[in-house]
Amino acid sequence: MEFDSFSIGLLLLRPDAPVLDAQAEDELQDAHMDHLARLHEAGLLLAAGPLLPPDAGPNRGLSILRLEAQQAQEVLERDPAVIGGRYSVLVLPWMVPAGAVSFSPTRFPHSLAEARAS
């Protein structure tokens, strides 16, 4: 049997994340979203979005990348929200039977304003 390989990237809110005012938080989120949109446009990121536990806000995110785990770790660590100390990164290799998962073409927003407008 053949398998397709992906990497699952988890962004986890750090317990020591800096406390930001609303403007700084929005700016960091815009930079984070722009980073993900650029990865998607480069063909490296297939899907991404926040994980929303019922008792908390969007404090974690999941990404599916078309990269080996080490490469995925490197590109996710370049995320401004990781560099800024908000998130840590956990990358897991993921294998599925060939053809079991497919991703439709889409466009990722580069900012909160763009996401809210659509």
UniProtKB/TrEMBL annotation:
Entries under SUPFAM superfamilies matching the protein: Dimeric alpha+beta barrel
Organism field: Candidatus Dormiibacter inghamiae
Protein name: YCII-related domain-containing protein
Family membership: Belongs to the YciI family.
Domain (YCII-related) ranges: 20-94
InterPro entries, per database record: Dimeric_a/b-barrel, YCII
Coiled coil: none
Domain of life, source organism: Bacteria
